[in-house]
Amino acid sequence: MLGKGPFVEQYLEKLYQTLQYALNDYARVFAFRFDLRLPHGKNLPGDAMTNRVIARFRASLEAQISHDRQRASRLNRSAHDSCVRLFWVRELGQEGLPHYHCIVLLNRDAYRTVGRIGSEGTNLYSRLELAWASALRLLVVDVLGAVHIPKESTFHLTRQDYLGHDEFFRRCSYLCKAATKHYGDGQHGCGGSRC
Known about the structure:
Blueprint: H1 9-25, E1 28-37, H2 52-75, E2 85-92, E3 98-107, H3 124-136, E4 147-148, E5 154-158, H4 162-172, E6 190-192
Antiparallel strand pairs: 1-3, 1-4, 1-5, 2-3, 2-6
C-alpha cells in the first residue's frame, strides 16, 4: 500500500512466509483479516496486556477448527481437513491498550466464508468470538463487538494465481506498517504460523 509506510521488513517477511506455508499445504486457500480488541469495562486477566492472550486465542481457534474437521469427517469421509495459519501484529491504540490485527488462512475446500455476524449457527465468526472470549477468560457475551472484520477482508487464493497473491500481499501489507507499533515492552509485535 503506497503512502502507508514505512514498513517493518521482518513483518512483511513473516506475512509472506505464512502465505507460502498455507499455499504449500493447500492448492486453494481461504484467507480473511480481522481485528481483536480488548473489551471495555470487563474484568480482564492479569496478562491481558501481554501476548499470552494471542497465544491462547490461537490455541482455542486451532482446537475448534480441529474439532469441526473431525466432526465433518465423521459425517462425510471425503470432508477436507484444514490447519489454521495465523499471522498477527500487535499495536497500541491511543488509550495505550493493545489490539491485534490478524489474518487466518485455511483450506478453501473446508471453509469458504466467515459466515454471517450474529448468526444463530456456528460459523468462523462465532468461532473467532469464542476463541477471543476463551483467551481473555470471559464469556462470549463479554466480547461482543471486540472482534471486527473490516469490509473487503476476505481472499480466495489458488496456488498458481500469482496476481491474486500480489493483491493479497498488497492489501495485507498495511498491517506491517511501522506506525502504531510499540517496542521495548518485552512483547513481540508480530507472529505467524511456523512449520
